[in-house]
């Protein structure tokens, strides 16, 4: 091998070695349903179902392997002629209410539905109570000052104003 060819081949080998991990991580595109109506129905249903891996994404938006499997399973159920409610019932029976993006209001989900409003109201009540107590304390402190102390405080405040 000639001396002028050696650096070129070394550079080529290094480039191929650096590009190899990129090819290993690429995935094939997920096949779409043969029937556009099935795919449209899957998209509609998928927006109402939660990805069990991602937990804050719908099955439609998730790229997790489980979400892809669930989309394929839903396609098969649609092709079998199942209604949307039958598909949801099947998935709830298999994975629980958590699979629904909007779980039903039940005894075990009351805190989920009304918890944020409850925490807001409790926080608002604590804030109002704190502000009232602070106002009463300031008024009581102002009343407990003698006329000389009050005049001195007012003069200090006037001196600090621009």
UniProtKB/TrEMBL annotation:
Membrane-spanning ranges: 110-131
Domain CcmH/CycL/Ccl2/NrfF N-terminal: 16-157
Pfam families assigned: CcmH
Keywords: Cytochrome c-type biogenesis, Heme, Iron, Membrane, Metal-binding, Signal, Transmembrane, Transmembrane helix
Family, similarity comment: Belongs to the CcmH/CycL/Ccl2/NrfF family.
Primary role: Possible subunit of a heme lyase.
Protein name as catalogued: Cytochrome c-type biogenesis protein
